[in-house]
Amino acid sequence: MEAIVAVYNDWGIGSDGTQPIVVPEDRRRFAELTRGATVIVGSKTLLDFPDSQPLKGRRNIVMTRKEEGVPGAELVHTPEEAAALCGDGDRVFVIGGATVFMAMFPYLDKIYVTKIDATPRSDAYFPNLDSLPDWRCASSEPFKSEGVDCEFCVYEKIKE
Ligand SMILES: NC(=O)c1ccc[n+]([C@@H]2O[C@H](COP(=O)([O-])OP(=O)(O)OC[C@H]3O[C@@H](n4cnc5c(N)ncnc54)[C@H](OP(=O)(O)O)[C@@H]3O)[C@@H](O)[C@H]2O)c1
């Protein structure tokens, strides 16, 4: 299972339920990678989507402890249930937010990170992969977005 996330310098990923700085290149990469795939998303991040609706052109799995259904999405109540819903051959991306990234972290073996050289105030964070010994940066591609230094990085879990 994979994840995709945009992080600031302190591995912050958002504040007040949204992303304070977004870069269009990251949005494009997100769209390209997740198109046609299954996405696992937390109920709070869903609220930040356009009209709070599941993403079109993807199978949406929403994590929540509540029972109310979300039209166009499948609900799961635990990480195990989310993993069980995904078939072996499916391409599955965990797309946040912070608590869902943490809940699904043990299932991840590849993480697409967009690093944005800025430090806005965050109240939601991703684990700093550079400090975790079982993760390595397998590739990186620097770019500038409207003058801001950014980098596409792909992290892979080191297999024992
Ligand atoms: N930078 C990025 O790439 C990126 C990507 C996505 C999100 N974000 C940011 O992340 C922030 C939101 O993160 P968040 O942690 O507050 O919210 P979240 O992870 O999107 O959603 C949290 C909700 O998911 C459900 N949930 C989480 N863990 C669960 C578990 N183990 N079992 C069952 N349900 C579970 C609960 O839903 P119920 O309350 O319904 O029970 C919980 O309230 C926002 O600022 C958003 O912009 C950033």
What is the level 1 CATH name? Alpha Beta
Could you tell me the strand content as a percent range?
35-45%
Q: Report low-confidence residues grouped into runs of 5 or more.
A: none
Q: Count the domains.
A: 1
Compute the separation of the termini in Å.
17 Å
CATH architecture: 3-Layer(aba) Sandwich
What overall geometry do the principal axes of the alpha carbons give? globular
Described by strand count, sense and barrel closure, the largest sheet is: 8 strands, mixed
CATH superfamily: Dihydrofolate Reductase, subunit A
Query: DSSP helix count?
Result: 4
Total beta strand runs: 10
Mean pLDDT: 96
Name the helicity range: 10-25%
Structural class: alpha/beta
Describe the structure.
With 160 residues, the protein is of the alpha/beta class. It has one domain: Dihydrofolate Reductase, subunit A. 19% of the residues lie in helices and 35% in strands. The chain is built from four helices and ten strands. The protein has an eight-stranded mixed beta sheet. 29% of the residues are buried. It binds NADP nicotinamide-adenine-dinucleotide phosphate. The site of NADP nicotinamide-adenine-dinucleotide phosphate has 28 residues, from strand 1, strand 2, helix 2 and helix 4.
